[in-house]
Write a sequence for this structure.
């Protein structure tokens, strides 16, 4: 039989009582266009979670934490689906801010000049009152840093800062659950955000207070060199995706990899690069179970997560 014609495209049939996993199974034979990769991603995720010898990373960009997807991120950490988190400073900012305040629905087409006059920040179609962000984060982080400094702790890796922050937040927070479950949260770009700015401001009056990112590297090296196998769900690109791939190259690459992105491949960006491109760099193994899902994460991930929960009976 012609190897190109091995799998027939089948129609998707959905009834009022259709199970979400039955729909995903049908999508794997749908032929078009992103749905097949979404179905592949579900199977890879389930295989990765079921592999007890696999160390599992989740990486994500900060913007998604400003949305309701924060709840999915929190639940993935709460259920210990992943063993480590790699993210951006913005994720810390939004996690703290949403612990103590509210964000609001907006629109991409709102007048930003008028919003500025009303002291409202716009993040896509999410509205962030100024009082819910900068001043709030400043007050909370300075208080947290003072408390640990007064205990005599003066040098931290980013995963240690994240653990400290989580201890001060509530159950709605992914940092809270990471701290509670001893899941390290690495932030390679810690200075690029409100929390990072507060760390810098604190250091101006406490010159012996340091963030030691080399300690992060020490911890990550222990993880990747000890891992029998490794896998990752990468939600969005940028530094969090790259840091995940970068460290896994030292063990010969990821064994499982699922990447969700809206970025185009043709501009040569890291965010647009398909997972399979990382094979050429040794960051993903040649025989890895891998796929790239082109779709907006806040739309895609809830369905992927729901299907995974049901399939794995988590």
């Amino acid at each position: 039989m012609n190897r190109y014609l091995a799998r027939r495209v089948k129609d998707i049939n959905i009834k009022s009582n259709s199970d979400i996993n039955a729909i995903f199974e049908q999508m794997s034979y749908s032929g078009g266009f992103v749905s097949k990769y979404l179905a592949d991603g579900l199977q890879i995720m389930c295989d990765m979670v079921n592999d007890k010898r696999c160390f599992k990373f989740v990486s994500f960009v900060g913007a998604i934490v400003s949305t309701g997807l924060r709840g999915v991120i929190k639940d993935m950490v709460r259920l210990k689906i992943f063993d480590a988190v790699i993210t951006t400073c913005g994720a810390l900012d939004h996690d703290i801010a949403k612990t103590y305040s509210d964000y609001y629905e907006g629109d991409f087409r709102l007048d930003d000049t008028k919003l500025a006059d009303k002291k409202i920040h716009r993040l896509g179609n999410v509205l962030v009152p100024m009082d819910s962000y900068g001043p709030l984060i400043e007050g909370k982080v300075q208080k947290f840093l003072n408390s640990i400094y007064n205990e005599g702790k003066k040098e931290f890796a980013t995963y240690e800062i994240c653990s400290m922050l989580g201890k001060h937040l509530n159950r709605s927070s992914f940092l809270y659950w990471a701290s509670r479950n001893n899941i390290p949260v690495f932030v390679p770009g810690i200075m690029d955000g409100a929390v990072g700015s507060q760390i810098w401001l604190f250091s101006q009056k406490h010159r012996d207070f340091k963030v030691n990112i080399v300690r992060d590297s020490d911890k990550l090296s222990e993880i990747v060199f000890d891992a029998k196998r490794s896998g990752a769900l990468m939600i969005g690109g940028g530094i969090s995706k790259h840091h995940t791939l970068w460290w896994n190259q030292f063990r010969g690459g990821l064994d499982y990899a699922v990447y969700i992105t809206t970025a185009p491949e043709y501009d040569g960006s890291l965010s647009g690069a398909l997972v399979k491109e990382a094979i050429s760099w040794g960051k993903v193994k040649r025989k890895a179970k891998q796929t790239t899902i082109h779709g907006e994460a806040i739309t895609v991930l809830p369905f992927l997560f729901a299907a995974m929960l049901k399939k794995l009976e988590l």
Remarks:
- The two ends are 40 Å apart (CA to CA).
- The chain has a mean pLDDT of 96.
